[in-house]
Amino acid sequence: MNVFSIDMGTILIILVLGHVLTGVLIISYRFQHNKEKSVNIFLMSKLFQSVAWIMLGFKKVIPEIIGVSIANSILFIGAALELISFLTLINSYNRIIKRNYNILIFVCILTFNVAVVYGATENIRIVFASLITAVLIVFPVYKLFKHKDSSLLQKVIATFYVITMISFLSRAYAALTLAHDMTLWSTNIFNTWSFLVLYLVMIVGSIGFILLAKEKLDFEIVKAASFDELTDIFNRRTFILHAKELISLFARKKEQISYLLIDIDHFKLINDVHGHYIGDIVLKEFAATIKAQLRDYDLFGRYGGEEFAILLPGTDEEDSIEVAERLRKTIEAASVSIAPEIKYTISIGVVTLIPNSDTNVDILYKLSDNALYTAKFQGRNRVVRS
């Protein structure tokens, strides 16, 4: 007896049950997360795939147009929706990608159905179906691997889809070149392993999607706790935590650090005259402009309102003044994107020192705040050193 010979009817039933039960779990999850678009798309993919496999299982007792053409078309759509749900989850399914990927799905389904209409043999249809499935996998796998924030979990999920793609390409090769029966019920080694891989990927895809959704939620929770919602830079708490680490590090190294406290001049007037919406735009664009001027390892955070802090590790007095003046001039030359007539300036208090075991963030804040007060007293739009 061939150890690789497995009853295909059993595999088919397991595939259908797997998709159905995954759908039940997703529906249960969806009641509390119905705003998550990726969850809805993944649920639709399970529905389409369940229906398609049921139709393919009854292929011999239903009209060929339903058992072959429609069933495979639904299966392609279901597989594509599963992949789209992952793209949506990692925020990589924008308008352009959506249009191009939808065109690809349409072309793939049309190609398969043209082959059916022109009387392609079952093995040739299997070649088309296998190649189409592999083609649909390529781009989502690439995005899972190459996404800028790609996690280890994403890469593992992508690897399983690569294995699926290789499996389908092997099945297409076997159907095209080898004297094997590659129909749905065939138990030859190529067919059996293709469906086993399909079953494993169904499990990995379902568990992977749920874990990836959880990973995204965890990241958003951490981000919400660490970053200022409006400006997308460190909030006061996180800035202070990281600043303590840097102060301790540079105290051990006996190297200088510089601390800049920045206040947007007459910000209340901007809110009063132009409204809080414009005020929020000013804060967002200010933060983005300043962040673009800093090094990757500089700390930048919002202390609250229109007050911001920057910690420049390894920066002496001369360089810190140069940085502060560059920031001041950059903001002075800028304007609000949606209201170019609105101009604003900033005042900056600067302190530079070699930290020791007694140095803390409060000391730096107080020293720079005194300098900032002097800058405002002297007429604003200026840099003053403590």
Q: Could you explain how this protein is built, in words?
A:
It is a single chain. With 386 residues, the chain is of the alpha+beta class. It folds into 2 domains: 8-225, Rhopdopsin 7-helix transmembrane proteins, CATH 1.20.1070; 236-385, Alpha-Beta Plaits (2-Layer Sandwich), CATH 3.30.70.270. 67% of the residues lie in helices and 8% in strands. It contains 12 helices and 5 strands. It has helices at 8-30, 37-57, 64-89, 95-117, 122-146, 152-177, 189-226, 236-253, 267-274, 276-293, 317-333, 361-377; strands at residues 257-264, 299-304, 307-313, 346-353, 383-385. The protein has a 5-stranded mixed beta sheet with strand order 2-3-1-4-5. The radius of gyration is 30 Å and the shape is elongated. The model has no long low-confidence stretch (mean pLDDT 88).
Question: Topology, pairings included?
Answer:
Blueprint: H1 8-30, H2 37-57, H3 64-89, H4 95-117, H5 122-146, H6 152-177, H7 189-226, H8 236-253, E1 257-264, H9 267-274, H10 276-293, E2 299-304, E3 307-313, H11 317-333, E4 346-353, H12 361-377, E5 383-385
Parallel strand pairs: 4-5
Antiparallel strand pairs: 1-3, 1-4, 2-3
CATH class of the largest domain: Mainly Alpha
Topology pattern, helix = H, strand = E: HHHHHHHHEHHEEHEHE
The proportion of strand residues reads 5-15%
Largest sheet: 5 strands, mixed
- Give me the count of strands: 5
CATH architecture assignment of the largest domain: Up-down Bundle
Give the neighbour order of strands across the main sheet: 2-3-1-4-5
Rough shape?
Answer: elongated
Q: What integer is the average pLDDT?
A: 88
Which stretches of 5+ consecutive residues score pLDDT under 50? none
Taking all Cα atoms into account, the compactness measure Rg is 30 Å
Instruction: Give the tally of structural domains.
Output: 2
Measured distance between first and last alpha carbons: 86 Å
What helical percentage do the residues reach?
A: 55-70%
Q: How many distinct helices?
A: 12
SS-derived structural category: alpha+beta
User: In the CATH scheme, what's the topology name of the largest domain?
Assistant: Rhopdopsin 7-helix transmembrane proteins
